[in-house]
Amino acid sequence: QVQLVESGGGLVQPGGSLRLSCKASGLNFKLFSMAWYRQAPGKQRELVAHITNDHSQNYADSVKGRFTISRDNIWRMLYLQMNSLKPEDTAVYFCNTNYSGRPFWGQGTQVTVSS
Predict the structure, then answer these.
(1) Which residues of the chain have pLDDT under 50?
(2) Among residues of the chain, what percentage have pLDDT more than 90?
(3) Where are the alpha helices (DSSP H) in the chain?
């Protein structure tokens, strides 16, 4: 059974940084693309960043140059380094992968950017 467990969220001031982590289990992690999504109150869930099994990365325009997605295939970890955070980055952040034709999600971790 695929399980994704996020951690690392919290309250941070504008301009600050956070690093989110996602621990994956139940799949051959190194073979799968992974992604971070976020959902703000009253808004649809949106793709933040995506990384393929060979580490090719893509980012939403709103986070380009500020966020970096990375992965550690040995430890089956996915990361999201978030710098220069803005209040509009406030959301619940979710780790995601697609396995056997269906999406899997973690429980999410809250990121709040506020002074």
Answers:
(1) none
(2) 100
(3) none
**How far is Cα 69 from Cα 54, in angstroms, rounded to an integer?**
13
Within 13 Å, how many C-alpha atoms sit on residue 93's CB side?
30
Residue 16 tokens, joined: 């600050």
pLDDT tens digits, 32-43 = 999 999 999 999
Per-residue buried b or exposed e for 41-78, using 16+ beta carbons within 10 Å of the residue's own CB: eeeeeeebbbbeeeeeeebeeebeeebbbebeeeebbb
Give residue-wise pLDDT tens across range 77-98: 999 999 999 999 999 999 999 9
CA distance 103 to 90: 23
Cα–Cα dist 113/115, whole Å:
7
Position 22, amino acid: C
- Amino acid in the structure at residue 2: V
> Environment class of residue 100 by beta-carbon count within 10 Å: exposed (0-12), middle (13-18) or buried (19+)?
exposed
